[in-house]
From TrEMBL:
Keyword Membrane attributed: yes
Alphabetized GO MF terms: ATP-dependent diacylglycerol kinase activity
Keyword list, A-Z: Membrane, Transmembrane, Transmembrane helix
Membrane-crossing residue ranges in chain numbering: 31-52, 83-102, 108-128, 149-166
Presence of the UniProt keyword Transmembrane in the record: yes
Organism this protein belongs to: Noctiluca scintillans
Protein name as it appears in the record: Dolichol kinase
InterPro entries in the cross-refs: Dgk1-like (IPR037997)
Length: 290
C-alpha cells in the first residue's frame, strides 16, 4: 500500500517503493554480462542469416507464413536490417569501458569524435564522386539515402546525444530499443503488416499495427529484463516503450527516428524512474552512473 512520507528535502510525497520492496540494483557485472550475451547472440543470428542463400531465406519466410507477394521485399529488408544488429556494439562497448574505470565524460568524447568523423565521411560520399563510387556500404543504402546523409549518421548522432545527456543504463536501454525495436517493427511490418489489421497508421498510413505492436512488446521485454530487479520497473519501461513506438510510427517534427527514438525513450525512462523513486532517489536507476 502506498504511503505518504516526507522526503529528504522536507516535501511530502508518495512512497512508491519501500526498502522492503526494493531489491538491490543490478551490478556492473550483470549489465556487462547482459550486453555481451545479447550482442553475441544477435551477431551470430545476423551472420547466420547473411550466410543463407537468398533462395533459402525466401523458403524460410514462406514456411513462416509470409505471404508470397511479400517474400521478396521481406527478404531484402532482412538483409538490410541484420546489418543494424552491429549497433548493439555501442551499448556493449560503453558498458565495458565504464566497468574498466573509464569515465562517462571520456566515453562522451569518443562518441562525439566518431560521429563527427562519420558525418564528414558521409558528406564526402554525397559530394565527392570518387568516394561515392567506392563507398563500401552502398549496397544497403535506401534509394532516398543516395543523395543525403544516411541512417548510419543519424544512428550515431542519436547514440551520441543519448550517451551525452542521460545516465549510462538509461542510454544503453534506449539504444537497445532503437536497434531491436525498430528492426522488429520493420521486419514484422514487412512480413505481416496489414494482414490482421488492414488499417495503416502513421503518416500516409505506411506503418502497420502489427509492426508497431511487435516493437512495443520487444521494448517492454528488453526493458523489464534490464531493470529486472528494480521495483515498479513496469511504470518507466512501459512509458518508454510506448514513447519509442509512437516516435517510430509518427516521426514527430520530421526528425529522423534514429535520433528521436533513443532520445525520447531516455526522457521517458528518466521521467518514469524519477517519479517512482521521488522520495528516495539514491535507490533509483538514475543513480547507477554516479
Amino acid at each position: 500500500m502506498d504511503t505518504i512520507v516526507p522526503s529528504t528535502s522536507g516535501v511530502y510525497c508518495k512512497e512508491w517503493a519501500t526498502p522492503v520492496d526494493s531489491a538491490p540494483l543490478p551490478s556492473a557485472t550483470f549489465l556487462t554480462g547482459y550486453m555481451v550475451t545479447l550482442t553475441v547472440s544477435a551477431l551470430i543470428l545476423g551472420i547466420s542469416i547473411r550466410m543463407l542463400r537468398r533462395e533459402s531465406l525466401r523458403a524460410l519466410l514462406r514456411d513462416a507464413g509470409v505471404a508470397l507477394k511479400k517474400v521478396q521485399q521481406t527478404s531484402k529488408e532482412i538483409e538490410r536490417k541484420t546489418f543494424h544488429l552491429a549497433g548493439l556494439l555501442v551499448p556493449l562497448i560503453y558498458q565495458v569501458l565504464l566497468q574498466y574505470g573509464f569515465t562517462q565524460d571520456f566515453c562522451v568524447r569518443i562518441v562525439w569524435s566518431i560521429t563527427i568523423v562519420g558525418c564528414t565521411a558521409d558528406m564526402m560520399r554525397i559530394h565527392v564522386p570518387f568516394v561515392q563510387r567506392n563507398w563500401p556500404l552502398k549496397s544497403i543504402l535506401r534509394e532516398k539515402e543516395q543523395g543525403q546523409l544516411c541512417g548510419g549518421f543519424y544512428f550515431a548522432l542519436g547514440c551520441t546525444l543519448t550517451i551525452h545527456f542521460f545516465e549510462p543504463v538509461i542510454a544503453m536501454t534506449s539504444i537497445i530499443y532503437l536497434v531491436m525495436g525498430d528492426m522488429t517493427a520493420a521486419l514484422v511490418g514487412r512480413s505481416f503488416g496489414k494482414s490482421i489489421v488492414a488499417l495503416g497508421i502513421g503518416p500516409e498510413g505506411k506503418k502497420s499495427v502489427e509492426g508497431s505492436t511487435a516493437m512495443f512488446a520487444v521494448c517492454v521485454v528488453f526493458g523489464c529484463s534490464i531493470f529486472s530487479q528494480v521495483h515498479l520497473r513496469e511504470y518507466a519501461v512501459i512509458l518508454a516503450s510506448l514513447a519509442a513506438t509512437l516516435v517510430e510510427v509518427y516521426e514527430p517534427f520530421g526528425i529522423n527516428d534514429n535520433v528521436s527514438i533513443p532520445v525520447l525513450a531516455s526522457v521517458a525512462l528518466t521521467f518514469g524512474f524519477a517519479r517512482t523513486y521521488k522520495c528516495e532517489p539514491a535507490r533509483s536507476p538514475l543513480s547507477w552512473g554516479r
